[in-house]
Design brief:
This protein has 7 helices and 10 strands. It is α/β, with parallel strands linked by helices and about 260 residues long. It is globular and about 50 Å long. Helix 7 links the parallel strand 8 and strand 9.
Length: about 260
């Protein structure tokens, strides 16, 4: 049995940071963000408080509240006791829709669809995507390198990539679904939606729903997708990739055509 040398031994000891002020800690930022449409408080999520307007666009789009970025006329932000209130100005009919399908509870950062009132809302916007060529392996590898370069401690990273493998957008958030919403929202605002979404997390059903709803034909994650996400991806013809550095890329659904 080989012995571990001092050079190989793991670091020992405990660093006591109990007296370090909260604001001086380098951990990820997280606040309760309440999204309101006019005077209707629609949902509260735990999110990293940046790129909130793109997040709101992507979130409202995934929820079926809006069909295009121009459906929201503007935003205002108010400070609450512990978090922020982001109020979107919309037409009265959209505020009524928000009132009808408002979340029954808060959405936690671990699950982008928590609090959804029905399975129909959970699966909203699923459709058969058009058949597109498989994403070139070099584009996937390049996106993985970008993901590695852009990562921030304690936060998920999401990237939007076009059909030529060029980076269109990047977002960070404590919740993987929030990061995806920010990238999709940026696409809505710019009028250019990515053809590939890449996220530094596992793949679960809400990520598939968001990609399909946005018409994005390929989604790549760095952890094994859930069985349900694979099932829905196949039904919707979404190319679903499981990507690891220095390992073969695995394709679980979609894309019968080849590059």
């Amino acid at each position: 049995m080989s012995r571990i040398t001092m050079a190989e031994a793991p670091a020992s000891g405990v660093i006591d940071r109990r007296d370090v002020p909260i604001e001086a800690l380098a951990g990820p930022r997280e606040l309760p963000i309440t999204l309101a449409l006019n005077e209707v408080d629609y949902a509260t999520v735990l999110a990293t408080p940046d790129q909130l307007e793109p997040w709101a666009l992507g979130f409202c789009f995934a929820e079926g509240l809006i069909e295009q970025g121009s459906d929201i006329h503007g935003f205002t932000t108010e400070r609450l006791r512990h978090g922020l209130l982001l109020r979107a100005q919309v037409d009265a009919r959209l505020a009524r829709l928000a009132q009808e399908q408002r979340r029954v509870g808060a959405s936690m950062s671990s699950c982008g669809r928590c609090g959804t009132a029905s399975e129909a809302l959970l699966m909203y916007g699923l459709q058969q995507l058009p058949d597109r060529p498989l994403v070139a392996e070099e584009h996937l590898r390049s996106a993985l390198e970008h993901l590695q370069q852009q990562r921030q401690v304690g936060l998920h990273t999401a990237l939007g990539v076009d059909g030529q493998g060029q980076l269109l957008g990047c977002a960070h958030d404590i919740g993987r679904h929030n990061a995806i919403d920010k990238v999709i929202g940026s696409g809505l605002a710019s009028g250019t939606m990515p053809s590939l979404l890449v996220v530094s997390s596992r793949c679960s059903i809400e990520l598939v729903q968001k990609a399909v709803r946005a018409g994005v034909t390929a989604l790549a994650c760095v952890s094994m997708p859930s069985a349900l996400s694979v099932e829905i991806a196949r039904l919707c013809q979404l190319q679903l990739y499981y990507c690891r550095r220095n390992a073969p890329i695995e394709l679980f659904g979609g894309g019968s055509a080849h590059p």
